[in-house]
Amino acid sequence: MSGSYDALYQAWTSDMEAFWADRARLLDWSRTPQQVLAANDPPFYRWFPDGELNTCHNCLDRHVAAGRGDQPALIYDSPVTETQQTFTYSELLDSTARAAGAFRALGVDRGDRVLIYMPMIPEAVIAMLACARIGAVHSVVFGGFAAPELASRIDAATPKLVVAGSCGIEPNRVVAYKPMLDQALELADHAPASCLIKQRDAARADLIEGRDLDWDQALAASAAADCVTVSALDPLYILYTSGTTGDPKGIVRDHGGHAVALANSMAMTYGLEPGEVFWAASDVGWVVGHSYIVYAPLLHGCATVLYEGKPVGTPDAGAFWRVISQHNVAVLFTAPTAFRAIRQADPDAKLLQEYDLDGFRTLFLAGERADPDTVRWAEQVLDVPVLDHWWQTETGWSITGYFAGTEGFPVRPGSAGKPAPGYALEVLDDDGHAVPAGDIGALAVRLPMPPGFSPTLWGNRERFRTAYLDAFPGYYSTADAGMVDADGYVWVMARTDDIINCAGHRLSTGAMEEVLTQHADVAECAVVGVQDRLKGQVPIGLLVLNAGVNRDPGAIAGETVQMVREAIGAVASFRTAAVVQQLPKTRSGKILRNVIAAIADGRTPKVPPTIEDPSVLDGIQSALGAVGLPRE
Ligand code: COA
Ligand code: AMP
Q1: Centre of ligand 2 from the C-alpha of residue 69, in Å
Q2: 3-state class of 37 per DSSP?
Q3: CATH code at 618?
């Protein structure tokens, strides 16, 4: 792709259907869509409604047929197990077809759900593609979630099959997944017919007779399954993400629009050619992992890196440089937090000198605000463009960016670039009126949303409407606030709901509050995100105890920390809670969470005149001080 960003954006604006019809040609269709956009059910829109295809065919079979069979498709690099394994396109196709055959033999059919609870191992990718192959719908659950979260996703997706690894390997411990799965299945109302377990040597799992099967044995015994043709509108996957309550939202992705959007993005956004190596240092449990570890690179005929390790500690802060140089990575996509971790451990990037990064072209950042300091550091040590782009699980691909496949435009550190062709982004005030350039407001996208956007929430179309479409009629409300400057650059500032971004992970503080209130001694509580030098934000909790409770407040706080770890998982990073006499509230009883967060960050809080009792703030300040907040 070439030409200017402006010309490309203009091409989309002048005829969006022609733009996407053209991008649909990047794929093989069993039935070429005659209709591009179905707009007969606003505010719900669907893309390529009469098209038929198979996503797995487009990721694997067609590349093998076109002569890419011997090219690397999946490069597994696992410093935590000291393993490296490369699958060519032919090998990945073979393993995927076998897994698909095994799933079918276990009764999984088109439309059935398969829940995948796996660490960053090739079997996770193979299981996802195998589902796509037979038209089953996968629901991947991130390994850092605990049993109750897993149970709620099992009940929501009602899978016929669960595919799990026996364990995950974190730098400091082995996380036994199988006992967590067993516990989740006890908690859940729904019972899958079978569980397929990939045994890993670090912690082999006990298999339950009649329900659990060994992945290796099942695949060895299975016959390869062919791709089935599905409708472009059929669901490819469900991915649960944090919502504004403890009840996660089941984001749905369809086959057709998703494949078109992702195939287009590889050249347009990331500037990649087929055959190049792309690395998204994320996790298959998050949307970035779905889109850019698995589907997009394979749709585009690239090799994708699956990295089971961390930016630091596996074994050191040179790990990313090693992977880039060893596998000849052209483009890396990760969260700013990973670079903050590397910088903290190796401020002058001395370890970089040990590696040859000649083939490395561009670093992409997303998942949280890319602070200008980190962007500049990365630019300076790597000497490549560092391009921020703004994302959401709901959209599946970036809303804004710098578009490496076009002539582009200069980077403004702190800005996530300009809207991608496909997104008519506006900044609105509370009444839904566009605000002048440079003013902060709600970031909203005029409907229709582009291909790849979640068409609904799994089993809950109404919640989809109320969560995303009702706030500003005719728009998708992103729940991010920000501004567009006079030159069209987008600045994403903060969420307008209770979501926080912690180490690039999306967490709901509301979900944590729901856990804390279950403590017998807690009357009410507030969880807010506070600034953290490494993770961007981390949650902290303030607890008001029931009258008459005279136990040690520190012990109660410690118990709540443990409760969040057990109910949500280690990934919540909830490590700090403090007991206070009262929470700051407005006269109408609304907890002033922004005020708490400002005090915890050492900022001057904007205290509204409606505050019920300003003297409460002194107690908050001293309770936060006692737990080391604000931090130096
Ligand atoms: N399975 C089980 N546990 C997991 C896990 C997984 N897949 N992923 C994380 N955890 C655990 C961690 O071990 C940690 O547990 P602990 O409290 O016992 O130490 C906890 O969840 C918190 O994890 P995290 O917030 O990721 O912190 P960390 O200290 O392990 O690592 C970073 C910090 C910055 C190095 C890491 O988060 C990172 O590399 N992030 C950037 C990339 C990324 O994943 N982005 C996602 C979207 S693009
Ligand atoms: P997730 O759904 O996990 O991808 O998280 C989406 C949220 O992460 C967005 O709504 C933003 O709040 C935040 N986010 C993602 N990318 C960026 C970015 N480049 N800049 C600022 N915030 C971002």
Answers
A1: 36
A2: strand
A3: 3.30.300.30
